[in-house]
Structures are given as structure tokens and as C-alpha cells.
Amino acid sequence: MTGTFTGSDIPYLPELLSPRWSWIPSLAFGVLLCVGIAVAARTERGRTLLAAIGGSIGLTLIASYLRYWPFGFVRTNFYLVPLLILLAGIGGVSATRFLLKRVGVLRRRAVTGAPRTVVAVAFVVLIALVVTGVGLSATYEVGSYEQLRDSGSPNGYGYAMGAAVASVKHQAKAGTALVVAGSMAIPGWEYYQYEYSGRATRGGHQIVTDDAEFAVDHGSPAITRLVSRTSPRQVFLYTPLGTSPAEVASDIKAVSAGATCRPVSQTSFTSSGLLILMVCSHR
After folding, report:
1. Domain finish residue from 93, 125, 151
2. Measured between alpha carbons, how far is 260 from 282 in angstroms, rounded to an integer?
3. Residues near 35 by beta carbon (within 8 Å), at least 6 away in sequence
4. Is there a single domain that holds both residue 117 and residue 237?
5. Which of 89, 120, 231, 241, CA to CA, is 20 to 30 A from 268?
């Protein structure tokens, strides 16, 4: 829920605040959310809202454990976002009413004109900060929505990830190892390889997790250890779009360090990545 303030790992999405300061509005949002939960729990309608949110989170957690549904802040769970924002809004309204009451008490207690002026100025500054924050958040959300909408076009990043996984499964056979290198490729590949039940990746040979390595760092020693341990006849190496030639070369070198392997073919998938087939021989 604090992603609006902390920014995104995706480089083309903007950040509302730098990571150095993003903890401040994130903490404020968390406090307002807690206040909203406390206020909502006092009414029947509020308890109904809390039961709906808690039940939805619980069901998605159970479904995730059974590998039927992802858990966390992913697009399939975005339906919870308006409800959580509503709770934070309830907390914000309650907090504002409390502050207004306190300001009224202070103004009544003020005897001279100077304290009254200080209280009035502080109140105006507070309102200005709130309005500015809402304006910045709204501007950020509109820009993010437009960029997400554009990235969701048929040629968006990772568009052909499922096709790459299907290609590997249809060509794989006994004695096949898989290496997926690069953090941008790992979540999508794991989803299509092991969780997705669509037609595109349903058939073919499933490469078990013991014969696969998902390396965040290119050229990782874990790649070499996989090849040395499994002694594969062939290795499929996949790198995401944007991987430099030097990084691809380091991945190939890591595979070859575990056995005598050489690239025999490579296939580029639109807006997704590069799939390299390597054939290995063993002494």
C-alpha cells in the first residue's frame, strides 16, 4: 500500500518521493490506516467492511498456499486497494476532526492576539500541506496509470514470456537443465513455468525445480554448480530484454564452466528476452 510513496522497482515508473524521504508519508499512511481500523470497528457497517477485507486477505493467503492464487500487492489483488484507501480516509477524517477540536480549544484559551495569529497560521499551513500532498499524489497516480496502460499494450514488456516457456517445454527432454538469469525475468518465468495452467504452456516436458537455476546475478557461480551437479545433455539459457552482451557472455561462460557446453541456437522473443540452447558433452 505504500508503493505510491516508495516508488517502483520498474525503472520507467516515476517516484513521488526519493527513497530517502518516502518513509515519512508511508508511516503517516500506516498510522491513518490503523486509526481507520479502530474507528470502523465501532460501527456495524465498519465491522462489515473489516470482515470483508480480512476475509479477502485470508482467502487469498489460503489460495496462495494451495498455489491457486498469488498473494500480496499484485494486479489480481488490486480490488482491495480502494477498500484499504477508504479505511485510511476514515482515519484521516477522524484525525482531522480531532485536530480541529484541539485548534478550537487553543484559540479559546488564547488571550492576546499574537497566540491567535500563530494558531491561525499553523492551521493554514497544515491545510496547505494536505492539499499539496493530495495534488501531488493525484498527479503521480494519473501519470502512473497512463504509463501502466501504455505498458499493457500487446508489445508490453514480457509480452512473449509465455511463448518462451512453451518453447522450452516443447523442446525439453530428459537430461535438460534450465537457467534463467536476471531479476526481471525470474518472476514471470516461474509463473508461466510452474503456476500458469493456460493452453500455451500446458503441454511438453516439465523441467523440475532441481534441474533449474534462477540466478539474480549474471554469471553467478550457482549456474556452474547446477550444470556440474545435473550433468545435462542440453541447457536452455534465458536472459531478459535489456541484458547486455557482456552479461549474456558471462552466463554462457558460467554454464560452460560446469561442463563442455556450446551454444547451438538462439531465439529472440518480442519485448521479452533471449533464449539460448546449449548442447553439452561429458567425459
Report:
1. 151
2. 7
3. 90, 91, 92, 94, 95
4. no
5. 231
* pLDDT average per 10 residues of sequence, the chain (283 residues): 47 53 74 90 93 91 84 78 87 84 66 61 72 64 55 60 89 91 87 70 76 93 93 94 92 92 92 92 72
Task: Return d(Cα 178, Cα 255) in angstroms, integer.
Answer: 10
| End residue of a domain, out of 125, 151, 177 | 151
My answer on whether 116 and 217 are in the same domain is no
Question: Distance (Å, rounded) from C-alpha 234 to C-alpha 271?
Answer: 25
pTM value > 0.85: no
DSSP 203-250: SSPPPPGGGEEEESSTT-HHHHHHHHHH--SEEEEEEETT--HHHHHH
How far is residue 181's CA from residue 189's CA, in Å, rounded to a whole number?
A: 10
Instruction: To the nearest 10°, report the CA torsion of 111, 117, 121, 123.
Output: 30
Residue 156 lies in a domain: no
Cβ count within 10 A of residue 248: 20
| 275 and 197 part of one domain | yes
DSSP-derived letter for residue 75 is G
If asked whether residues 44 and 181 sit together in one domain, one would say no
Residues 19 and 141 in one domain: yes
Is the Cβ–Cβ distance between 198 and 216 less than 8 Å? no
Instruction: State whether 128 and 207 are in the same domain.
Output: no
Q: Residue 152 — left, alpha, or beta (φ > 0 → left; ψ -120 to 50 → alpha)?
A: alpha
